[in-house]
């Protein structure tokens, strides 16, 4: 079985979006992040 990375989209690149992206990049999950 093939596993695909979890996909996350953050709408808006303001302070809250950047903060959320920073927290997600520190998570130990395989995911793709788009801002």
From TrEMBL:
Cross-referenced Gene3D superfamilies: NAD(P)-binding Rossmann-like Domain
Superkingdom, taxonomy of origin: Bacteria
Name of protein: Uncharacterized protein
């Amino acid at each position: 079985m093939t596993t695909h990375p979890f996909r996350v989209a953050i709408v808006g690149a303001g302070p809250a979006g950047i903060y959320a992206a920073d927290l997600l990049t520190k998570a130990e999950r395989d995911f793709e992040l788009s801002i």
